[in-house]
Write a structure and sequence with these properties.
40% helix; mainly alpha; single chain
Amino acid sequence: MPNVEKTPRQTIRVERELWDKAGQAVGARNRGAVIRDFLRWLTHETDQLPQRPADAERDNAPAAPTGHNGGTA
C-alpha cells in the first residue's frame, strides 16, 4: 500500500511557547523521538527516563525542524 505510514500520526495540543522551547531543548533530535521515549518510560516499557539536555547544550543547539506539518506533532 503506498502512502501508508509505519506509525500512525497522533495529534496533541501544546502551547506554542512550550513547543518552541522543547524544539530548542532537543536540538538535532526531533521532538517526536523524545516524546516516544517519554511515553515508553511512562507506560513501563522501559525503566530509563529520557535524558534531559544540559543547559549549555540546549542553549547552543539549533532548534529541531518543524517538519511538513508546521511542527505540530
